[in-house]
Amino acid sequence: MADLVSTITLIFTLLRVICWFVLFFVTILYNDALKRRKVFHPNLQLLLFSMPFTYLIFIIPSAFTLIVKFFSLQDSDLLSTLLHALTDFGIFGSSFNLFSFTIERLIATWKVDDYEHISSRIPYMALLLLLFQWSLAAAVVTLLY
User: Fold this and answer.
1) Residue 20 sits in a domain of what CATH number?
2) For the chain, which terminal residue's Cβ has fewer other Cβ atoms within 10 angstroms, N or C?
3) Looking at residue 62, what is its pLDDT?
4) Residue 116 burial (CB < 10 Å; 0-12/13-18/19+)?
């Protein structure tokens, strides 16, 4: 029975690692396609560009956590806490992505006549929304740890 559990654990760990590499490759392709096509407003384009990186922020620390557990490496409490905090930071940051998109789309709908001229060169609104998104994620993680 123990062999079956370890075999299943190994299979799912390998599938998870393959998914990480696929996600990383898809992130590169997605951002490359987004860079080439300039059809979106700069605010929306920056939010779309940053979206896959928010997922990488919680996948990379969780990968290191899995590697440490899988190979039975000796990890300190500080390293374990740091990796879990970074994973939680990425999870909360990615969950607040929808909030940023919603606010940006609401402003675009509300200011439909002026929106194309608002921050058309530098996406100030998207930068503020991203700053707020990650500040909120940092505040939540700080309260958790």
Assistant:
1) 1.20.1070.10
2) N
3) 84
4) exposed
Q: Which of 129, 120, 105, 124 is nearest to 41 (CA)?
A: 120
Is pLDDT above 90 for 117? no
Domain count, the chain: 1
Q: What is the pTM of this model?
A: 0.79
Please give the structure tokens belonging to residue 81: 């806490």
Rounded CA-CA distance 41/58 in Å is 27
The range of the structural domain enclosing residue 111 comes to: 2-144
Residue 37 pLDDT grade (very low, low, confident, very high; cuts 50, 70, 90): confident
Residue holding tokens 């654990």?
9
Cβ neighbours of residue 68 closer than 8 Å, sequence gap 6 or more:
75, 79, 80, 83
